[in-house]
Amino acid sequence: TTWRRGGVLSEISYTAIPSADTIGLVLNDAEMSIVDLSGATPVKTDYASPLVYSTAYAAISNTEWLAGNRWGALAIAPDAPSTPTYFGWGTAFSVATSPERIVVATGSGNLLYFDAATRELEGVIEFPASEVQLSADGTVLAALADTPLVDSLRFISLPSESVLRDEPFSPTARTIDISLSAS
Hints:
Strand order of the largest sheet: 3-4-5-6
Radius of gyration: 19 Å
Distance between the termini: 49 Å
């Protein structure tokens, strides 16, 4: 769909998916709208998509719905702004290891990191990375996001999850690989 706003021609892409008495509208791979058709007048509610690149939607009502994406991730979206519940993290895009830690970039748009000795999940970082690298001691994570929504190379301190540096790059300059020195 295209429209003019302030003399500027804009474009929006969306997918409409009917389910129960609702229609799920997936907008630009980042936002979702649910149109409730159960009442006398349709009611539209906007949400942030619980997954990157949502392509599937199912609902039993306008407040009980889930989304899926092309990489096998499935999430129930909550009513209030909070963390969605994941049934599956989806495809593992990249794995980085050190003697201390293991990090997996997943199709859900999350980074999972584990204690290498116990294999216990230490945390989940919301960042849609396509590649990850770890420092030798596992305390610095380099994560490359190369999506239409996020174009940056982010350095994260683990396990605190604090962002050390965020290096955005131009959408026309695609980074295809990263390497992190051991130190």
